[in-house]
Structure formats: C-alpha cells, structure tokens
Design brief:
It holds the Pfam family Abhydrolase_6. The chain is about 40% helix and about 20% strand. The protein is of the alpha/beta class. The chain folds into two domains: about 190 residues, Alpha/Beta hydrolase fold, catalytic domain (Rossmann fold, 3-Layer(aba) Sandwich), CATH 3.40.50; about 60 residues, no CATH class.
C-alpha cells in the first residue's frame, strides 16, 4: 500500500489501480479494504477508464489516527487522496455511512468533486425500523473510554445494524471478532457522520443543499426492508440526484453490477 499524510498529520494508507478519472471508494462503518474486497474488485473492472483509490479510513487497517475526531478530518483525508491523484475533480463513491461522508465532502467545498454515488445510505426517515437512540454516540464513546470495545461493537450491531444479542454472541465466537474489536473506536465516527439522519424524521433540508453536481443514489432490490427508504429519501431531497434500484441484497451488490453502474453514471 501507498500512503498520504492528511492535514492533521494522520497517515492514510491506500491502493490505486488503473488510469483515467479519479474515483475514491469509501467504506461504511467497520469496513476497510482488508475485509471488504468489493472495492478492489470493482477497481479492476474500471481500470481502463478510472484511477480508483481504495483506502483505510483513519483508525482502521494501516492508517493511523489523531484525536480529537471530527468529520472535517475525514474530509481532509479525502482531499489528501485527491491531491495525490493530481488534484483534479474526483468521483466519490460510498457504501452505507461512507456514502454520507461522500455527500458531506461534496458539500464542504474542501475538495473538487464531479460526481457522488452512494449505495444504501442507512437513513431512518420513517417507522420501518426503530430510530437510533439519541445517546448512541455517547454510549459508544463511554464503552471505548472504559476499555470495553466489545460493548461498543455490541451497541453498534444491535442498535445501528439491527442485529440481535444472539448475533453478537455468535460473532464473538468467530475469527472476525478480534477485527471488530480493533476498529471499535471508529464506530463512533460513523455515528457522528450519520448525525440526526437515523432519527425517524425527514432528512435535513440544508445539510447538502450546496451540492449541485450529479448524485447517484442506489439500493438493492432485495435488501433488508429497513434499508430501502434511505436511497429514495435522498433522491427526493436532492434536485441533482438519480435513483437507481440494482440487483443485490444484504446491504451490498457485486462488482459486476457496481462497476458498470458507476461507469454509466459518470460517462452519461
């Protein structure tokens, strides 16, 4: 992997594949390239027209971290990657809460962005599922501060991801549990990124009002019912957004579906 240094001194590790337009793929909560191969596989399929960056968000994988956390620091991480790519306008793609980070980056004006694509932003805008508790982030912070990352993972799994305590117990018996413990402090980062957008209320009208570039908002036709409302809600909010249902389930799709969707969106 290569690295860049973000504005606050944090080292951001990344891989870049292909030639052409800059595309940065942003993982959601708990994800990073070593455990999510979809980004790298998608990058290979797009390598003839895009230089695709897959990277470890701060605090995950081979990237370092610097306190205190702020969403602006993650936007600066993206700006450092764009600068590495030559500084031209970038296409941002984000899974889940990573898509919300992509929207925040485009709205910030801190880096040049030509297109934003998101897959299933996990907004809670109705009563299909319970809203996220108002003290969610505070409880994550408290668990990590107390040296109990397992409690932070459990809070995320049950209250944000919609799992059950039994699923948490099963995860504890898997090889993936140590990985989750290692990235537990970063779960609160995505909680801050989601903000009030999982409260069961309509999306904030002003948060992304400055976005005037094309936005593609996607969701899987066979995804979990609780995740279906988010993408349409975003498409309804943003005048430049296009809604695209795609084959897929369980909060993801395949590189063979995602790559042409991104190519068609950018080249339209």
């Amino acid at each position: 992997m290569s690295t860049v240094i973000s504005k606050d001194g944090t080292t951001i590790a990344f891989d870049a594949v292909g030639t052409g337009r800059t595309l940065i793929m942003i993982d959601g909560a708990t994800g990073y390239p070593a455990i999510n191969p979809l980004n790298a596989e998608t990058a290979k399929l797009l390598s003839d027209g895009f230089r695709t960056y897959t990277y470890d968000r701060r605090g995950r994988g081979n990237s370092t971290d610097t306190a205190p956390y702020a969403i602006e620091r993650e936007i600066e991480d993206l700006a450092a990657l764009v600068e590495d790519a030559g500084g031209g306008p970038a296409v941002l793609f984000g899974w889940s809460s990573g898509g919300v980070l992509a929207l925040d980056a485009a709205a910030s004006g801190l880096l040049p962005v030509s297109h934003v694509a998101v897959f299933e932003p996990p907004f809670v805008v109705d009563d299909v599922r319970p809203p996220l508790p108002a003290d969610y982030v505070e409880r994550l912070d408290a668990a990590n501060a107390a040296g109990d990352p397992g409690e932070a993972v459990a809070i995320f799994m049950v209250e944000a991801a919609g799992g059950t305590p039994e699923m948490v117990e099963g995860l504890k018996q898997s090889d993936f549990w140590p990985v989750m413990l290692g990235i537990a402090p970063t779960i609160a980062y995505d909680g801050r990124i989601m903000g009030t957008t999982m409260s069961g209320n309509p999306l904030p009208a002003d948060r992304w009002a400055s976005i005037d570039i094309p936005v593609l908002t996607m969701y899987g036709l066979d995804t979990w019912p609780a995740l279906k409302p988010g993408a349409p809600a975003l498409a309804e909010l943003l005048p430049t957004a296009t809604l695209k249902p795609v084959p897929g389930e369980n909060h993801a799709t395949t590189p063979e579906v995602l790559a042409p969707a991104l190519r068609d969106f950018v080249e339209a």
